[in-house]
Amino acid sequence: MVEKTAKKTGAKKTSAQSKKNTQPEVVSDYNGYDYKKIFWEDADRKYEDLADRMAIRHLLPTEMGNFVDIAGGYGRLADEYLPRAKTATLFDYSKTELAQARDIYGDRLKTKAGDIYNLPFKDDSFDGLMMVRATHHFKDMQKVSDELYRVLKPGGVAVIEVANKRTLPRMVRFWTGKTDANPFSLEPVHLKEIDENGFFNYHPKYIEAVFRKSGFQIDEVLSVSNFRSAKLKQVFGTRNLVRMEKAAQKLLAPVRFAPSIYYKLVK
After folding, report:
1. For residues 150 and 168, is the Cβ–Cβ distance under 8 A?
2. What are the pLDDT digits (tens) for 14-49?
3. pTM tops 0.85, yes or no
4. Which residue of 65, 101, 149, 182 pairs with 214 in a disulfide if CB–CB is 3.0 to 4.6 A?
5. 264 beta partners
6. What are residue 90's phi and psi, to 5 degrees?
7. Where are the strands (E) in the chain, listed by range?
8. Cα–Cα dist 242/176, whole Å
């Protein structure tokens, strides 16, 4: 699945910051974009939504204190963590999406706008955090990972979804000469045909080294959205794909097969 028309949380660079070159440039900005309606409600992405939820239910702790959903948009997945957390905050760059979240959840969910590369939270603020469908917009994943580690309490759990470059469809495209993007190389690939400003996929070994460098321990890995394909949806239907997904998430995790790889990390 490609978020071609969508924009996501990024770092907004001022002219002064640009001169100092103190942080990565903005990758995407969802302000003014109705991500909820255009990307999720108007498109056939029920399977992807259910696959995300399946992974989150398995990986998130059943009880948490202070929790934050990083780059969580309009709170699509908030109903998965609100029953598990004493307090929950939704963080995003887009004030448009945060306003939608307030309309949906009211005071059940705190909201905070800001820059992913300089999170507006103190060190050791959260017992748990989650970041889903966001990594493909970030130019500097090491800086992002370091910030996530900083705001998490010792012993806290982070559930992070990563856009995988080493998928079977990308391998086939590379082998047949349809793309120069090598799915086997460790460096991130910038898929400019999807978004000139930023759409990055990561090799599992690369991203796992990033997490470890920040200080995280990798506790568990899942392969998610294994059957993300319009053709498969037509042939099997969402219900059957979800059944197949349930069996595949753990089974295919060792080979990091899917376009979405979920990591349960511990500080």
Report:
1. no
2. 333 333 445 555 556 777 666 766 676 667 789 999
3. yes
4. 149
5. 159, 220
6. -105, 120
7. 64-70, 85-92, 110-113, 126-131, 152-163, 189-190, 200-201, 217-224, 260-266
8. 30
